[in-house]
Write a structure and sequence with these properties.
Length: 168
């Protein structure tokens, strides 16, 4: 073996290590993006199901109701339903949102939307507007944002001219 070949061999090993590290980095980044995308798909799928259920119960007789369990990604702590003119926020247990860290910004963030997720930075998109939003309300008084903990059950109740979403 010539002296130049022996000197060049460590460079081949170093190059192989660098290429291997780049492949591992790319693979890890791809897996993380895939997990984020699957969480977003899970949320959008739930929102679309909720929208079709609200539209269905809007057409049914007053008093018709259905219970749905909130099954969202673990990053999501609260699922909030906002009325069009929402001014204040409360949790499904009836207490205000002021002392809950995840819900401090929800009144500001939810303006113009009727579905919000908290914490607001959990996913790329955490606010949604369901079409025909006048059909869905969070409260009888039309001025609240009502937040439900992830994992709770919610009840969709037909009220004739709108559909109320409340704690089951």
């Amino acid at each position: 073996m010539k002296k130049a070949q022996i000197m060049g061999q460590p460079f081949v090993y170093i190059f192989a290590l660098v290429v291997g590290a780049l492949i591992l980095f790319w693979g890890a980044r791809t897996v993380i993006k895939l997990v984020e995308r699957s969480e977003m798909v899970e949320v959008v799928d739930f929102i679309k199901t909720l929208e079709s259920t609200v539209n269905e119960y809007y057409m049914l007789d007053e008093g018709s109701e259905k219970t749905i369990k909130l099954r969202l990604p673990k990053k999501i702590s609260y699922f909030c339903v906002a009325d069009e003119n929402a001014q204040s926020c409360k949790t499904s247990s009836g207490s205000g949102c002021g002392g809950i860290k995840e819900l401090e910004q929800i009144s500001r963030v939810c303006k113009g939307y009727n579905i919000c997720l908290a914490p607001v930075n959990a996913l790329k998109t955490t606010r949604f507007k369901i079409s025909k939003s006048g059909r869905m309300r969070a409260s009888e008084s039309q001025d609240l944002i009502v937040c439900f903990k992830n994992g709770e059950s919610i009840k969709i109740v037909s009220k004739g001219d709108y559909v109320l979403i409340r704690k089951a």
